[in-house]
Design goal:
The complex is a heterodimer of chains A (156) and B (382). With 156 residues, chain A is an alpha/beta fold. Chain A has helices spanning 2-10, 36-43, 101-112, 144-147; strands at residues 15-17, 25-30, 49-58, 62-70, 77-85, 90-92, 115-117. Chain B has one domain: Cytochrome-c3 Hydrogenase, chain B (Orthogonal Bundle), CATH 1.10.645. The chains are: A alpha/beta (156), B alpha+beta (382).
């Protein structure tokens, strides 16, 4: 995989391959979350779009973000995996590099509460503005506040 | 006469003042031509759209959370309600993810049956699209015709699986039932009918009809780089000249053994998207005919228990649904339920791209462009 070596060569100490990835679905683990934007800039030379962004809640400490990139010309898939602290869930937004990341980041913010710095319109997307809690977190509980939510207080 | 002219000037002036402070109008969420529940906040000046903000989430059901709360097998009925127009495609996708994680290989007959069901569902989805396009443009005859042909295939699906909109035909490890006796000849004659009607009757009413062309040619143009920027896939991207089709480029199921072409068009307007879908129906009919010809015999499923565990793993599968590249990314932790299941819905990216596609268009074309992108709020909102 030429692109893989090229990307890794640019960031020798912060990127490492993860075992179990097969031929055209490679996974790279990014150890330093502050480098995400620079790594994505390099990824942009080889891939066209952010295919999807999956956050995984791993309590008690970690949110794992999986950035999946795909290309129209080749059929390669690249996953950049980065761990961020759960109680300080903040990372740079890549929506200025990949337009398709805009709504994916909003969705991750909506359902997990991960904040993306530099996103121009970071607000909830699937749930209403006043919804209590972040439902895809593992510690989300259906409290009375959720149960009695009516949506009637929303302003249009 | 003179005072009349004066009044005209004043009203013109007022109009210009309004242009300076644009008017915001809301379209949806409950509107017959938003194909479900979508809302648009549109800033208009005159009748030109200046800024558009799609709002989604009106049918959010928390499917990804539900997946974490159910056994692997029990999620299937929810997977097929993600996109209620192409349910079988999503069933196949979910089954493929779990089978890949379980390392189960399904028998050849099941592979071919799944391919056949995917293509039948694609034809049905595109027929519904044709019908809706007709309705959106005020052509109710086309609407009725689209549904008439879709109904023929609905009957086939009902005979095979017992369900119509949400068939629940795919099980983990294969299919629930084999084809009933006498279905193949019926299917073959149905395909002949559909092919004949799409080629002849539809032509007069839609893609070679002057009025239809006036409403769609040059409307809602998506250029190739815009499609790539927003991650559009499927017929929407192919109508902009991008040759991407996972069935051909990264074959799954039995697609590598079948002969078919990737349909593309260059214009990227609403008309091109319509024509691409019409031609895809014909292409899918070609595929189903080949499957009928070399459908292997034998088992239709391997035994997979209802409740099982999958060791910790990451599994990623993507397939071509009628709306584009859909994918599921499943994380397992060794338990009886998925730890996390992320769903990529192709329609979400089409709706996201609308904020740029609509700019500069006329208000009257909103419905035509929206219809030509063919989004399903069910999979947008999940």
């Amino acid at each position: 995989m030429e692109f893989l070596d090229e990307i890794k060569a640019k960031f020798p100490n912060v990127l490492e391959s993860v075992d179990g990835s097969n031929e055209n679905e490679s996974v790279l683990l990014l150890k330093d979350k502050t480098k995400i934007k620079r790594v994505c800039k390099e990824v942009k030379n080889h891939f066209d779009i952010l295919f999807m962004l999956m956050a995984v809640d791993k309590p008690p400490k970690i949110f794992e973000l999986n950035y999946v990139f795909s290309s129209y010309k080749t059929q390669n898939i690249l996953t950049i995996r980065v761990n961020i602290e759960r109680d300080k869930a903040v990372i740079d937004s890549i929506s200025s590099l990949f337009e398709s990341a805009d709504w994916e980041e909003r969705e991750t913010y909506d359902l997990f509460g991960v904040e993306f710095i530099g996103h121009k319109n970071l607000k909830r997307i699937l749930l209403p503005e006043d919804w209590p809690g972040r439902p895809l977190r593992k510690d989300f509980e259906v409290t009375d506040e959720v149960r009695n939510w009516t949506g009637l207080d929303l302003k249009f | 006469m003179r005072s009349g002219t004066g009044l005209g000037l004043i009203s013109n002036f007022r109009f210009m003042e309004k242009e300076r402070n644009r008017i915001t109008i809301n379209i949806g969420p409950v509107h017959p031509s938003t194909h479900g529940v979508l809302k648009f906040k549109v800033d208009i000046s005159g009748d030109t759209m200046k800024k558009i903000e799609p709002e989604i989430g009106f049918v959010h059901r928390g499917v990804e959370k539900m997946a974490e709360m159910k056994y692997y097998s029990n999620f299937m009925p929810i997977a097929d309600k993600l996109d209620y127009i192409a349910a079988l495609n999503w069933e196949v996708l979910y089954a493929s993810v779990v089978e890949k994680a379980l390392k189960v290989v399904i028998p050849p007959r099941a592979v071919y049956l799944r391919t056949m069901m995917c293509e039948l569902q694609r034809i049905m989805s595109h027929l519904l699209f044709i019908g809706h396009s007709g309705e959106d443009l005020g052509n109710t005859t086309l609407f009725m015709w689209g549904f008439r042909e879709r109904e023929l295939l609905m009957d086939i699906i009902e005979e095979v699986s017992g369900g119509r909109l949400a068939p629940m035909y795919i099980s983990l490890g294969g299919m629930y039932y084999d084809l009933p006796p006498g279905l193949i000849p019926k299917l073959a004659s149905t395909l002949d009918i559909i092919e004949k009607r799409v080629k002849n009757e539809y032509r007069a009413l839609s893609y070679e009809n002057g009025l239809f062309k006036m409403r769609t040619v040059g409307v809602g143009i998506i250029e190739a780089n815009l499609a790539i920027k927003y991650g559009l896939t499927g017929p929407n991207a192919r109508a902009s000249g991008i040759k991407c089709d996972l069935r051909k480029n990264a074959p799954y199921l039995a697609y590598d053994k079948l002969d078919f072409d990737i349909i593309t068009a260059d214009a990227g307007d609403a008309y091109a998207r319509f024509v691409v879908r019409v031609n895809e129906i014909l292409e899918s009919i070609k595929i189903v005919r080949q499957i009928i010809k070399d459908l292997p015999s034998g088992e239709i499923k391997v035994k997979v228990p209802w409740i099982f565990t999958i060791p910790p793993s990451y599994t990623f599968v993507r397939q071509e649904t009628p709306r584009g590249e859909a994918a599921m990314y499943m994380v397992t932790d060794g338990g009886q339920k998925p730890y996390r299941l992320k769903i990529r819905a192709p329609s979400l990216y089409a709706v996201q791209a609308m904020s740029e596609i609509f700019v500069g268009g006329k208000v009257a074309d909103i419905v035509a462009i929206l219809g030509s992108l063919d989004p399903t709020p069910g999979e947008v909102d999940r």
